[in-house]
Amino acid sequence: MAEVVKKFFIASMFMWVAPLAILYGFNNNLLPGSTNLSPYSMTMFSGILAVISVNIVIAFYIYMAIKEPSNKHEPDPAFVAKAKASVNQFTGRAEGSPAAIKKNK
């Protein structure tokens, strides 16, 4: 579980840092070629690259989740037992169903 939280935290941090770094780089002329752009073009280009960077981070996070082995994770036995008990308890008709209402009258 800690590994999943760690991956989520790292991906979340990259989703904040990558676009902010791109915007900062463009606004402070740290990226080559950004000094030749008009302010309008610089704003549009930096915004588009920032959005693309977030999508790349999301795609990478999804790729890591898909490649994670499914046999690595075991369900919590207490949760499974409670879920089975809950399903067994409610296998009959629901109390608010029309058939249950007619039965009670």
UniProtKB/TrEMBL annotation:
<keyword id="KW-1133">Transmembrane helix</keyword>
<feature type="transmembrane region" description="Helical">
    <location>
        <begin position="46"/>
        <end position="66"/>
    </location>
</feature>
<comment type="similarity">
    <text>Belongs to the VMA21 family.</text>
</comment>
<keyword id="KW-0968">Cytoplasmic vesicle</keyword>
<keyword id="KW-0812">Transmembrane</keyword>
<comment type="function">
    <text>Required for the assembly of the V0 complex of the vacuolar ATPase (V-ATPase) in the endoplasmic reticulum.</text>
</comment>
<keyword id="KW-0256">Endoplasmic reticulum</keyword>
<protein>
    <recommendedName>
        <fullName>Vacuolar ATPase assembly integral membrane protein VMA21 homolog</fullName>
    </recommendedName>
</protein>
<feature type="transmembrane region" description="Helical">
    <location>
        <begin position="7"/>
        <end position="26"/>
    </location>
</feature>
<dbReference type="Pfam" id="PF09446">
    <property type="entry name" value="VMA21"/>
</dbReference>
<dbReference type="InterPro" id="IPR019013">
    <property type="entry name" value="Vma21"/>
</dbReference>
<keyword id="KW-0472">Membrane</keyword>
